[in-house]
Write a structure and sequence with these properties.
about 35% helix, 4 helices, Nuclear Transport Factor 2, Chain: A, single chain, alpha+beta
Length: about 150
């Protein structure tokens, strides 16, 4: 029963994020959350600590890809409330500024303690992400977008 509840909460959380309400994810973050988005040489690359830096990363994501959406494809849950591990497979999509569609696959690994995220690591196909970042930059007249340190 616990695992079913956790899966339902994760699906609802991604639904809220799809509406632009990433604050719902920030509220789940423990004070010492370690968030990693493994995307070298992109403005989304991150290894940050705490809810404020997590919030800033989401703001950067939604600024770079307005209207980005996520489709939860699979959720695996192990453990109990005091130590829960999740693996989430996501589909990612956005309409880029040049009118083309960006689609990618992501894998998310989460550790929860009593319903609070203490670790969150996300990986996407980096080649697709880099290409989309470059397309966004060209379409916005920004040229090449250098990585931004968190």
């Amino acid at each position: 029963m616990y695992k079913t509840i956790v899966r339902a909460r994760v699906r609802r959380l991604w639904q809220r994020i799809n509406l632009g309400d990433y604050e719902a994810a920030v509220k789940m973050a423990a004070p010492g959350l370690r968030f990693r988005f493994l995307a070298p040489d992109t403005p989304l690359d991150a290894d940050v600590t705490g809810p404020e830096e997590f919030r800033a990363w989401f703001a950067r994501l939604f600024d770079l890809f307005p209207g980005i959406t996520f489709e939860v494809r699979h959720i695996a849950v192990v453990g109990w409330p005091w130590n829960t591990a999740l693996a989430v497979r996501l589909g990612v999509s956005a309409r880029l500024a040049d009118g083309t569609e960006y689609e990618n696959d992501a894998a998310q690994s989460i550790l929860l303690r009593w319903g609070r995220m203490i670790e969150d690591t996300v990986q996407e196909d980096i080649a697709r992400l880099r290409a989309a970042v470059e397309r966004q930059a060209r379409a916005r007249g920004e040229g090449h977008v250098p990585p931004v340190a968190p």
